[in-house]
Specification:
Shape: elongated
Mean pLDDT: 90
Low-confidence stretches: none
Distance between the termini: 30 Å
Oligomer: single chain
Number of strands: 3
Largest sheet: 3 strands, antiparallel
Structural class: mainly alpha
Helix content: 55-70%
Radius of gyration: 17 Å
Order of helices and strands: HEHHEEHH
Amino acid sequence: MPLQITVDPDAPDAPYEQLRAQIAEQARGGSLPTGYKLPTVRGLAGELGLAANTVAKAYRALESDGVIETRGRHGTFVAAAGDAAEKAASEAAQSYAQRVRRLGLDRGAALAAVEDALRAVYE
């Protein structure tokens, strides 16, 4: 099951974001199973015609999101992303709830802000 990535230079999203989103989607969707070894930064950059720094930036973001993990010289692998993604989302939600409370927003206003943000991202 090879990694299937297409980077559109005319797309509104930056190449690193396209790469990040496609790998995350494939990992979370199961087409890249947990433990799948990803190409090296330079290898994938060469294959896609991107700068190595672009791929490295996408890999850093994916690692920060818990989608992939780097095991030193052994390589970069798809992590058990479901648990990590849910944990990160829970932590972000907790941080948001604490912040809006400090700002003095009531529950309704806080929920409305979240719904607006989700609508903007998902639609």
